[in-house]
Design a protein that fits this description.
Radius of gyration: 17 Å
Largest sheet: 8 strands, mixed
Helix content: 25-40%
Number of helices: 12
Shape: globular
Distance between the termini: 41 Å
Strand content: 15-25%
Oligomer: single chain
Length: 288
């Protein structure tokens, strides 16, 4: 096995754009489909959930009523904490709003302008906003789940581990029913040695310790569903299994690979009602 700190090997393992020749086509489809959704579907855009750059979210209300209020899905985009935008993920919303969910898609500030710790804190503010404001948009604050891709998967796992009473006295100890992490990263130490990432992320050993869910005790509430594309790198497959190994099968009851998918195509399953990834999100929402 190659040394995990070999920069060239890590670059090949974590540079998903280099690993997937057609990655640009995926990003273009996300952007164009999302633009169409925002033009045609009911939505409220750019609501502030906090202060500072990037602290806004888009709201997509359910298209059919659900007794007790719609469960809430918070969709967190990826991009290695340094790229992409909430506007790239509007395409995910219709499959869930048609199933009766309220969908929130938050933005966050990007590295290197901010560090990952800042982004994590922004996402705690977004979830706190969801808990406090879901009812005003037809949602049920007692049933909030998050779904994140890649860096968003890391953020989803971090949110399960949050000490929510330190975020706000009014918040429950665990406002999340669960989280779906798609191609998540849970051990950030390899990224500290990956040249194209470390240039922007500027991770230190102390930051890695604070920001790696794989180094945390398992959360006291909520479950994590961890999935990864079968065609992804050995490191992404390792990261997916790692969080199950550390947190255990009670907290991580789903730890799966998705056949015939790479790092970009696997997240597209969220928008496909026939896909396993979509069904897992519905399960967390109590809609399956």
């Amino acid at each position: 096995m190659r040394a995990r700190h070999d920069p060239a090997w890590l670059q090949a393992q974590y540079d998903n754009r280099a690993r997937v020749p057609g990655f640009a086509g995926h990003l273009e489809r996300w952007a164009s489909a999302s633009r169409l959704v925002r033009e045609q579907a009911p939505c409220t855009l750019d609501l502030p959930y906090g202060e500072g750059p990037g602290a806004t979210l888009d709201v997509f209300p359910p298209t059919r009523p659900v007794a007790g209020g719609a469960p809430v899905l918070v969709v967190i985009h990826g991009g290695y904490w340094r790229a992409l935008d909430k506007s790239d993920f509007s395409y995910v919303a219709p499959a869930f709003t048609e199933a009766g969910a309220l969908v929130l898609v938050p933005n966050y500030a990007l590295a290197p302008a901010v560090d990952i710790e800042h982004i994590v804190l922004q996402m705690t503010q977004a979830v706190a906003w969801a808990w406090r404001n879901a009812a005003a948009h037809g949602g049920n604050p007692a049933r909030i789940a998050v779904a994140g891709h890649s860096a968003g998967g890391h953020l989803a796992a971090m949110l399960l581990s949050c000490r929510w009473k330190q975020v706000g006295d009014d918040l429950p100890a665990q406002p999340l029913a669960g989280a779906l992490s798609i191609s998540g990263v849970y051990d950030l130490e390899p990224l500290r040695h990956t040249p194209f990432l470390q240039a922007d992320l500027r991770l230190t050993p102390a930051a890695v310790a604070r920001l790696s869910p794989a180094f945390f005790p398992r959360p006291k509430g909520g479950q994590l569903y961890a999935v990864v594309g079968l065609e992804e790198s050995d490191e992404f497959l390792r990261q997916n299994q790692l969080i199950r190994d550390v947190w255990g099968p009670t907290t991580v009851p789903v730890c799966e690979t998705v056949a015939l998918t790479n790092h970009f195509s696997v997240v597209e399953g969220l928008a496909d009602p026939k896909a396993r990834v979509h069904h897992l999100a519905l399960r967390l929402l109590g809609l399956a």
